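Rotation project, supervised by the postdoc (A.L.). Task for the rotation student: set up a whole-complex structure prediction and record inputs and outputs verbatim in this book. Inputs entered:
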Amino acid sequence: MDFPEELKYTEDHEWVLVENDVVTVGITNFAQDQLGDIVFVELPEVGDMLEEGKTFGVVESVKAVSDVYAPVAGEVVEVNEVLPDEPEALNNSPYEAGWMIKIKLADPAVLDGLMNVTAYKEFVEKD
Amino acid sequence: MISTEGRGLVLNENLLFEQSQPGRVGYSVAGLDVPAVTPDSHLIREDISDFPELSEVDVVRHYTRLSTWNYGVDSGFYPLGSCTMKYNPKINEVAARLPGFTDIHPQTPEALNQGALELMYNLQRDLGEISGFPAITLQPAAGAQGEFAGMLMIRAWQEARGQKRHKVIIPDTAHGTNPASSALCGYEVITVASDGILSKEAVAAVMDDDVAALMVTNPNTLGLFEADIREICDLVHERGGLVYSDGANLNAMMGISRPGDIGIDVMHFNLHKTFSTPHGGGGPGSGPVGVVDKLKPFMPVPFIVKGDGGYQLEYNCPQSIGRLKSFYGHFGILVRAYSYILSMGGEGLKRASELAVLNANYIRARLENEYDLPNKQRSLHEVVFSEDALQNDCHTLDVAKRLIDYGYHPPTIYFPLVVHGALMIEPTETESKQTIDEFCDALLAIAAESKNNPELLKQAPVRAKVRRLDETAAARKPKLRWERE
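Outputs recorded:
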């Protein structure tokens, strides 16, 4: 199962791509595999302020409904508009077409609390 | 003898729209003896073109054929975890069809409705005795509305004390409706992780003066009794919170433990689960709520009281959260539940709980060597396996589909979420040892198939009227309305 080196990861199985002070967020390949076929996605609106660790969206598969949590605090600056119409992108392309939102970081220091790829792989194996 | 052998004739049936023939009718009316009038054009709907035109026999055959595709508690074992699909005794139907009940109107004067009011009064009393709560409302239409009513009463009680609290604590083993009911009442939901059962420490870690209530399901969705519930209630009460208990699993506790005696402040009953009234597409639910004395002033109105002039509907309750439902709840369901309570009696209800627990534990003992059992604590009325012991990339969904080939309604799957690939089996007390043994034989045969011939699972169901449906496509691109091709 692939977990790109350049990303950071959370214990709730979100990935984070850091580009200057904007981070892109999605769910990992492990998360989409566990959820199964995803049929519905709910995203926040551009301009929403997110709190770290709080729900920012919902992902529903044929098996279950799951909340998705904000890995960092900040303002939503962009959302993947096509995702609600094409939720299968989360299954087919979790790291690219399936990205969910972009957040303007409130505090870059919080990135230090996220896992790198080695730590996340170990976490997934233990889980 | 368990097998997938057998033959049958399962006829296909076209939609009524497809069977329609222009001009065919199912009625015959006398000729018109008054002047004909054409309705104004704005009164004529245009969106019902292609409305089916059929004869009586077309319609009767259509629905009779469809009814033969049904699977219900009258046709077989239905071990749907968390749903308590027990057999519904026919004496309940006899009682509900008595003309004295079917021929009354909700607006009939009280003096002429005394029998119905007496039944509701007695049911309030009996549910109170079973649960240990001094006050009961019969109004809520189903369990979820009961939860809503209970949370509204909790909010009203705290507001009457001049407090505005914002949070509700819910363990991860609660029913899925619990967080929804809390959110609907304006609360933020704080989820706490449990290790099978909820610990005092986990609650203490999040309990503060902004928590309105703890909402638990007991026994929880793993079928485990919350053993520390008494101490947990004390802890919540000390900080000015209340405790809501989801009574959907009361079937494991009737006659043995009373929620009202162990510190719970509010609980709803699911008459359609515990008290053998129809549910699951077959009829309305009913979710009465029991409360402790301090919440009584906030109960929905009306409730039934006994006065000098007989039984009355009481509306005088100034702090009430108001009316929840038109008239007085699902009265026909109340009659069935009362019939069940009277026919079982106190000892019978206790025996029902004992057998429900025994049956679930018998299934657990027969299957736990072949199916992975993540929570090894003593379980009550249901047992939850994970998919971790399945071989050859077989999953819970495959087991469920293969059970259809063996003639069973599958158990609840992928719930609760805290179990990986959950297979949640609740046999209830109404099943015989023979039925349960045959069901276990089927699940053991399926476990063997997953090792030796996994394709049987992945192809299943092969003997059902339709093969495996594309649930993903149905959810992503639903076709909700028939259109002529």
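Student's summary: Residues 331-367 of chain B form the longest helix (37 residues).
Supervisor addendum: The two ends of chain B are 47 Å apart (CA to CA).
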